[in-house]
Amino acid sequence: MEEYGLTTQLVHAERRQGVENGAVHKPIYTSSQYAYDDANDLVAVFQGRPGFSYARQGTPTTAALEKTIDQMEGGVGTCSFATGMAALTAIFYTLLKAGDHIISSQFIFGNTNSLLMNLARLGVEVTQVDARDIEQVRAAIRPNTRMVFMETIANPGTQLVDLAAIGELCEEQQLLYVLDNTMTTPYLLKGKEVKAGLVMNSLSKIICGHANALGGAVTNTGLFDWSHYPNIYEDYQSGDAKNWGLLQIRKKGLRDMGATLSADAAQRIAIGAETFEMRMERSCANALALATFLEQHPGVVSVSYPGLASHPQHERAKALFADRGFGSLLAFELQPQIDCIDFLNRLNIVLLATHLGDTRTLSLPVAKTIYHEMGPEKRRMMGIADGLLRVSLGIENENDLIGDFAQALNYYI
Ligand SMILES: *Cc1c(COP(=O)(O)O)cnc(C)c1O
């Protein structure tokens, strides 16, 4: 299937894996346990042969979705989780221990930031740098550095680090490079292209796309040599060393922590994934159109969107995403005399809600909602102004969206 385009691959992915009775979707397997006629088979599954035992470790439905996500990322193995945060928790808590050091970008998802702060309380040293400047990443490396964590397009500020150069730095220093690809998805960028060792995708966002299921996935790109990684337990140092890390994540992070993706959610995500490329094309086009409109409007002070020539990393975005688009999220600031809450209340189509990557366009006042808990000082460090509005573009018709923002803005002009 690899010779086909992404959507062709995706709409035929499950069928090609051999779905029972010619069905086109993998059924929702509700069984919690999987029984065997011969006790030898039960033993073999417990000792590593592919198969199912207890649904906390996965079902045929989650396994089918894992193969699809793996195909999207061009990986060598994928493990699914109940949410994107569960996937990140599994990565950090199974691969790091007290005394280790992790470097992360200072522009990261708020809940991930909170998770890293908790890791610091447990004795992992955390350094956050302005990774737009790779020298800051290089300067932060210590003898106990194990992992470098980056996001592809920062939310909500849309800052963009040089993902490929950081990949080379990690390769040169033999550091594990973990990339959160949620904002770009494998449509805009595959983690492997920038030399990431592990790629996390929140499946709740663009990949599911219809705001009807939560999920997350960790994909092993096969590029990292785990035989040099000091935190792999002896039990998981068997077979090809390129698989050790994901095996440990599956055993310690999925089986033991137990944040398993339900079969029900997995099937809804798999159906959403069939159209994610088309939705992404449309949302990226809508985002560019709205960003261009907002930038020219007198009621708007500034717009952050990597597709605009005014974006500080516009050239970097063009190189990384190779003209496929610039993402489906933008942020903007209104003129100070316009109250952002009053403005939001004038929108008719746009939903006032958190979440992103839905078919519907969503907006919220960032400092008062998702970054409220963080406090003013941290917000300043992350470049979040008090009046900043975030917009996650859906797939509505472009003219309707521009019209909605125009009528709300024109009230003040
Ligand atoms: C939403 C999000 C997550 C967390 O995913 P959930 O599925 O909501 O747990 C992680 N990283 C980024 C960049 C996100 O946008």
UniProtKB/TrEMBL annotation:
One of its GO terms (molecular function) is cysteine synthase activity. Keywords: Pyridoxal phosphate, Transferase. It comes from the Bacteria. Its cofactor is pyridoxal 5'-phosphate. GO terms for cellular component: cytoplasm. SUPFAM superfamilies: PLP-dependent transferases. InterPro entries: Cys/Met-Metab_PyrdxlP-dep_enz, OAc-hSer/O-AcSer_sulfhydrylase, PyrdxlP-dep_Trfase, PyrdxlP-dep_Trfase_major, PyrdxlP-dep_Trfase_small. Its EC number is 2.5.1.48. The modification N6-(pyridoxal phosphate)lysine is found at K205. GO terms for biological process: cysteine biosynthetic process from serine; L-homocysteine biosynthetic process; transsulfuration. Belongs to the trans-sulfuration enzymes family. This is Cystathionine gamma-synthase. It comes from Oligella ureolytica.
